Amino acid sequence: MHYVFDVWMTRTFPGVPWCRYADDGLVHCKTEAEARAIKAALQARLAACGLEMHPEKTHIAYCKDAKRKGKYPITKFDFLGYTFRARTAKNRHSNTLFTNFSPAVSAKALKSMREKTRKQNFRNQTALSLQDISRLHNPVLRGWLAYYGRFYPSALAPMFGHLNKTLVAWAMRKYKRFKGHKTRASMFLATIAERQPGLFVHWQRGVPGTFA
């Protein structure tokens, strides 16, 4: 792809910003006409090299924000686990809200994280202590937070909530006094999160999430 795409883009469209990771790439265009022209040229370039664009993933998206207010059918896209779309943000200088076009963890990435947590089957591993689960899962959480927490970390709340609910299910199986008592188990873990925020990575950041 370095020769097929990188070198070709630099030579054919100098001054047009682009980025690529493996076989996924983005080209930043100023106008719809420019985007369509580059897409057609790139399609021909790939065909000449025995390759083709993905028919479902390849599209032209309008980066709508407070200044770009046009109406187009596609106003968001996913790239490297992030969804880029219009979002409400706050100006730190004027303390006012505005709309910008920015990334946050994608729904697909969140689903993948929940599935990975589910496969660990912590809820049924009653031989483990809460400290054991923390030791096993914190490195994974730390990696997710380091990557996806760079932009709109609050978007990771569903993943945190899923883990906390998994811990509630674990507590209900491990301790007889919580069997059939989800609320009591939730309050038990919420108290631990308050007293020992360093136990889990997301608790350390002050976003323990919901346990209910």
Quick summary of this structure?
By secondary structure, the protein is α+β, with helices and mostly antiparallel strands.
List the defining traits of the structure above.
7 helices; 212 residues; elongated
Folded structure, characterized:
- There is one protein chain.
- Strand 4 and strand 5 form a beta hairpin.
- Helix 3 packs parallel to helix 5 and helix 5 packs across helix 6.
- The chain is built from seven helices and five strands, in the order αββαβββααααα.
- The termini are far apart.
- It is elongated and about 70 Å long.
- The strands form two sheets. The protein has a three-stranded antiparallel sheet. Strands 1-2 form a two-stranded antiparallel ribbon.
- 17% of the residues are buried.
- The protein has 212 residues and is an alpha+beta fold.
Radius of gyration (CA) equals: 23 Å
Distance between the termini: 48 Å
Q: State the secondary-structure class.
A: alpha+beta
Percent of residues in beta strands?
Answer: 5-15%
Could you state the oligomeric state of the chains shown? single chain
DSSP helical segment count: 7
**Sheet bearing the most strands, described?**
3 strands, antiparallel
Low-confidence stretches: none
User: What is the helix content?
Assistant: 40-55%
Sketch the topology as an H/E string, one letter per element: HEEHEEEHHHHH
Q: Could you tell me the number of beta strands? A: 5
| Shape, per Cα inertia axes | elongated
